[in-house]
Amino acid sequence: MIPARYQASRFPAKLMQDLNGKPVILRTYEAVVETGLFDDVYVVTDSEIIFSLITNNGGKALMSQEEHESGSDRIAEAVAPMDVDIVINVQGDEPFIDKVSLEGVIEVFRYDTEKEIDLASLMTPITDWDEISNANTVKVIVDNRNFALYFSRSVIPYPRDKSVNTTYYKHKGIYAFRKRALEDFQQLPMLRLEATEKIEAIRFLEYGKKIKMVETHVTGIEIDTPEDLERAKKAWK
Description:
alpha/beta; 11 strands
């Protein structure tokens, strides 16, 4: 499932911006389909423009019936009538998504015989301090089993002791959900930490859900700003 909201606070209509001949959302959809990992791939949107773009190019799209605060809410509505076990959420601004990273979050559930894991997500190491301190970069800290402890736009962990060799991780907006976790998410109200940080993954933590983080070294480019789009155009070539 690829949630695709037309408006975006930092970069309005970013999903319809041209990325070397095709809109960003179409590039993302095609990249996910080309992995060959999924029974079905849908764009879930609130926009007739995006819906028409995907369907007119031979893809599958669903129109949201309600207004939603987050991509997870949007997907939860879409999958409610579907007979599925695991749902993968790929953000619409991830045209560089790769097969290896997606396989990583899927594999988590193959070995979770106790069904301990509610959802899995991706993280990638970052070393550039400008990126680490950038509020648009969501950071994640994990325990010794790679379960998420917290997500933040702030620098976490804070380097009070600079002699400690700490790895910083950027959270990539790719999720693999058990369907039940998605259903719970839609029913649970937003609490203060999620409302403060504006990071939807925090809602799962606030309600005691277990998020398994999978490390990937494929960084790609998430298109959040016009500057990101220009970098993406150069990388696509």
